[in-house]
Write a structure and sequence with these properties.
This protein has four helices and two strands, in the order H-E-H-H-E-H. With 81 residues, the protein is an alpha+beta fold.
Length: 81
């Protein structure tokens, strides 16, 4: 088999498998906000929508603060990152 054919096959295989490899390598992360969803957190949401976290290998879940929960406590207890 010629080198060009081998290279084309390897490229096709990598394109077909890349979605599965990227999803398998993602690490779940819970992003705990200090407040309710507000404009000041727009950068986090844009990064999520643009896929920047996914490209870096993270599966991010953005959570707003709850009324009776401490954001520091959520972090210390391991419920957020």
């Amino acid at each position: 088999m010629a080198w060009g054919t081998k290279r084309a096959l390897l490229y096709a295989l990598s394109v077909c498998l890349s979605p599965f490899l990227s999803e398998a390598a993602t690490e779940p992360v819970a992003l705990q906000l200090k407040w309710k969803h507000q404009f000041q957190f727009a950068g986090y949401y844009m990064a999520l929508e643009k896929g920047f976290y996914r490209d870096a290998g993270f599966d991010v879940n953005i959570r707003e603060a709850r009324i009776n929960a401490s954001t520091i406590g959520e972090l210390v207890n391991g419920n957020a990152n």
